[in-house]
Design brief:
The complex is a heterodimer of chains A (93) and B (363). By secondary structure, chain A is of the alpha+beta class. Chain A has a single domain, classed as Beta-grasp domain (Ubiquitin-like (UB roll)). In chain A, helix 1 runs antiparallel to helix 2. The relative contact order of chain A is 0.24. Chain B is mainly beta. Chain B has a single domain, classed as Methylamine Dehydrogenase, Chain H. Chain B contains two helices and 27 strands. In chain B, the strands form seven sheets. Chain B has a four-stranded antiparallel sheet, with no helix packed on it. In chain B, strand 8 and strand 9 form a beta hairpin. The longest helix of chain B has 4 residues. Classes of the chains: A alpha+beta (93), B mainly beta (363). The interface between A and B is medium-sized, with 18 and 17 residues.
Amino acid sequence: MSVRVRLPGVLAEHAGGARSLEFDPAPGTVGELLDVLERDHPRLCRRLRDETGALRRHVNVFVDGENVRSAAGLATPLDAAGEVQVLPSVAGG
Amino acid sequence: MTTLLAIGTRKGLWLARSEDRRTWTLDGPHLLMQEVAAVTVDVRGERPRLLATGYSEHWGPTVLWSDDVVSMGTAGTWHETDHAPISFPRDTGAALARVWQLQPDTAERPGVVWAGCEPTSLWRSEDGGESFSLVRGLWDHPHRPLWHPGAGGAAVHTVLPSAESSKVLVAMSTGGVYVSDDGATDWRPVNAGITAPFMPDPPPEFGQCVHKVARDAGAPDRLYAQNHPGVFRSDDGGKAWTSISKDLPYEFGFPVLASPTVPDLIWTIPLEADVRRIPPAGRLRMQRSRDAGESWTEVGTGLPDGYWGVVLRDAACVDAGDPTGVYLGTRDGCVYASADEGESFVEVAAHLPDVLVVRAVAL
């Protein structure tokens, strides 16, 4: 089963210009998805998580519409997921 | 000769150019919507290299460089490494919060660039600032757990390498001033004589809230520190500091500047006090000393009245021109330049985002 990752436009330049990326088969968890992104798109990945592996404070990741912070965090499974969406939270001034 | 003034702001970088340091043209924004808290123009190579930090509240910190933006303006290209240019080793358990300072080493060590970062750490690059390694000697210093963040965060904000030796000096708020004599392996605090009124007497060996340190043009061991509060001078590389605030009307502030060519010529930008962080009576002016802080004179014709913000610690700089040029930027986005040692200023830019850093070089 595959999973599609949708990115905000501002991050497309760090994913080879793509607004969405498809992974088939889907990695097992959100954390494993980030590991794949780190290998294939390291400039994108380091904008999503810091060097300790933690999601950046103002980065939200939704798996089929549910914020992973309300689920199992980086351990949130992707095996039944269709879509992962990365969205910046409301922040700044 | 063209003078280039790099202006880092809360929302991007602007570049100003002038042939006479009185009439300026502005180009930008570069790196729009990235906080540029540190910028430097490294002129040691064949082409001037711009190095800048980019920080986003969402996407975190990075370091970017360009070898053609100086010549091509906004048509030039910025680069960054794929993997994070500054990344804490896994065993530290730390994550980079911000880059506060980018400082090329001297001509004696081409390619070496230092970065001062938050959390309090020093980093060294040997590839012109493209990638950095953690300076373990400072990170592993037994004092580090006792360094506390100032209001702006816990960071190394000043790095002064030495042309004459392998000595490196850093300053941090709080923590104070530390020196390495062996190129950044072993570090010792050098704060004797610097006060810390937020702690009980006697002043501690370390933990002072030093806001900025500058080196005198005539003697590498003559240093100036704008402290929280007080302005101090050391004539022996930091072993002992003495107050040079006696003749200053106000002793609080953030930047301290020293001419890179004229010995004993220094400037501060005073604020009324720790608890009244405003230019005295809302008049933005500088204090200038020609005798290493023994006496001071107010200067700054052309700087605004009715300015109630501060000039941040890196939002002021000098150039190596004759006479020394002086530059400062304000939190309401105005930038001012002086071609006569701070005597008078012209406006370079207005209505930019908050100015965090300015750096001037002759091209």
